[in-house]
Amino acid sequence: MNGWVEAMRFSTFFYTFKQGVKNIWRNKVFSLASIATMSACIFLFGLFYAIVVNFQTIVREVESGVAVTVFFEDGTSKEAMEQIGAQIDKRTEVSRKVFVSAEEAWEEFGKVYFSGAENMMEGFEEDNPLAESAHYEIYMNDVASQSTLVTYLQSLEGVREVRSSDIAANTLTDFNRLIGYVSAGIILILLCVAVFLISNTVTTGITVRREEIAIMKLIGATDYFVRSPFIVEGILIGLIGSAIPLVLLYFMYRRLIVYVGDRFIWLSNMLRFLPVNQVFSTLVPVALLLGVGIGFLGSRLTIRKHLKV
Amino acid sequence: MIVIDNVSKAYKAGIPALNGISLHINTGEFVFIVGDSGSGKSTLIKLLLKELEPTEGDIIINGRSLNGIRHKQIPRFRRNIGVVFQDFRLLKDRNVYENIAFAQRVIATPSKKIKRRVPMMLSMVGLAAKYKSYPKQLSGGEQQRVAIARALVNEPKILLADEPTGNLDAHNAWDIMKLLDEINQKGTTVLVVTHNLEIVKAMKKRVITMRKGVIVSDERMGGSNEI
Ligand SMILES: Nc1ncnc2c1ncn2[C@@H]1O[C@H](COP(=O)(O)OP(=O)(O)O)[C@@H](O)[C@H]1O
Ligand SMILES: [Mg+2]
Questions:
Q1: Domain span at residue A260?
Q2: What is the pTM (predicted TM-score) of this model?
């Protein structure tokens, strides 16, 4: 039976768990500080996450309205156009494409410019002034890859012109990225602080228990057994420190949706919040995992440094 | 059986704490180690526990070379050896029962066995009535009994005691030594480091005397000389 198997025996696991809880309890001030920092960390993470996913939904809605338009060279046959269409369909960045024939283009043009005077359009059916305006409207999955797509489309045979609105695409992408970077940066700093504090807590715990650890080693405790209460301590701090802000965020987010819906009805067109469950079904497991991971990492690093077994 | 084969230990460059010690201790023996303070007795105990590595030589316990034991195997090796110290080294935040059970929990003993063994040990050291007491509520002699119970709860073949009576009055010292003798009668090999020459003389056991890191005499009191 090796040390790990030994440590996994139920009574031993229970004992280890109890010792981990005891560590936290004995070391209340440090533990509370760690839990508080952890909570702040996860709270901000959750906040940014909620903002980013909501914003991303808005961006995606806007994106789905941004189209690339492909015009054909004079005299391109229907078959050739269909072939180009097939090649467009193969591109992964394309979400859908719409073919607009010259006739449809003319009709659309008429609706806009001759509204109320449709009779003026008569007589053009056989001699469409927009005869060369058949085109594809291409909608994309991700505006960021627009320029790649445009380059590709321009290289296709039979394509006369590719129109796109670079500014809209680029601004949205850049803004999205900025939010991502800023939140990642802040969260990273906070995570470092959390790891540092957990590490301090565990160090104090090890110092307080130095004598006990020495006795354990003399009696024949394995490295796993000596270390695991401190790992449990770190994981528990991480777990508590992520559960508290999650509960808080959950109620805050719910209140916010109701509040904005009530007071700012005029905003509700622009600001459509994602439903609580959709946001939290991802946020809860990710935040808990993050908390547990940081707790584990914080104590693991400390043990490695201060608990030479 | 313990074989100490030409062992030296130097903490720093300079005078070694142990200087070429060789010794045989048979299974079931009771051995006293005496000598001035600083003569290397505790160093020898630490080497036997593989808390320290010898600078030279090797120790073989029950056929196993300590130099050949890897770090990961040390816990398992130590489970064959019980230790007690002058300062008892009990856990102050746990009662007598938990202090003894601790030694079993540490090596993942099933709870059933713990519940059976701890009361056995308590009655062996005569503390069955005080199982709920905390160390600070006990006399020095009682604390050392708890430490002995803890050292023996996992049934080691060897018991090492580094000045177990150093903090006790004469009466308690005698009681502890008698207890160690009883333990030895039941088959455990016992090695006792002590300053208490009065008891050593009275008990008529094998006595090893050390001075400045070497063995200066090894004799069986009341019997024939070994060397
Ligand atoms: N950790 C240590 N570092 C350096 N020197 C030590 C250490 N432990 C013991 N010594 C030295 O080794 C010698 C033997 O010490 P020790 O084995 O404790 O003797 P004893 O137990 O017989 O009193 C002494 O000179 C002591 O100062
Ligand atoms: Mg000593």
A1: 2-62+171-306
A2: 0.73
